[in-house]
Specification:
Layout (H helix, E strand, L loop, with lengths): L1 E4 L5 H14 L5 H21 L2 E8 L3 E12 L10 E10 L8 H15 L6 E2 L6 H7 L13
Parallel strand pairs: 4-5
Antiparallel strand pairs: 1-2, 2-3, 3-4
């Protein structure tokens, strides 16, 4: 397996992974997934070009890209314990089903965490699916006090 940094030319692969990740979490509405692709394509086209999204892809010779993940870097006002004007969020961690349980997601995560460290971040966050949670806990992620209010 080889990890490489994604480029704007990889947008379709990133979008495919994003849709499959949501399907794995139980989202099946085809119209919603099409809308997700439209919104996400616009976002990733801009963010990959301006550095707002850093992604890595896992490739296996003869199989092509089998997984990937990325970090969104958001402007953030900081807090008393995190005095940085931006915040990283890991998202889109996905490995094709036939390549799971081989350490690929762990390698992707480690690469993303290492990248965050080289960028000077003192923490990184993510939202975990039930399937991903055990891996993230093994790596050292801990639950926080984040809450959500749906407005629509």
């Amino acid at each position: 397996m080889h990890l490489r940094t994604a480029t704007p030319g990889d947008i379709e692969t990133i979008l495919e992974h994003r849709v499959e990740m949501f399907r794995d979490m139980g989202y099946r509405d085809a119209q919603q997934l099409r809308l997700l692709v439209q919104v996400s394509r616009e976002y990733f086209a801009s963010a990959l070009a301006n550095g707002g999204y850093h992604a890595v892809l896992a490739e296996i010779e003869g199989a092509g890209v089998v997984g990937g993940g990325g970090v969104v870097v958001c402007p953030w006002p900081g807090s008393v314990d995190r005095l940085q004007p931006r915040r990283p969020w890991i998202l889109n961690v996905y490995v094709r089903p036939e390549y799971r349980r081989r350490g690929i997601a762990r390698s992707i995560m480690q690469e993303l965490i290492d990248w965050c460290r080289t960028q000077g971040f003192d923490c990184v966050c993510l939202h975990a699916s039930e399937v991903g949670r055990p891996l993230y806990e093994q790596i050292g992620f801990q639950p926080t006090n984040e809450m959500r209010l749906n407005l629509l």
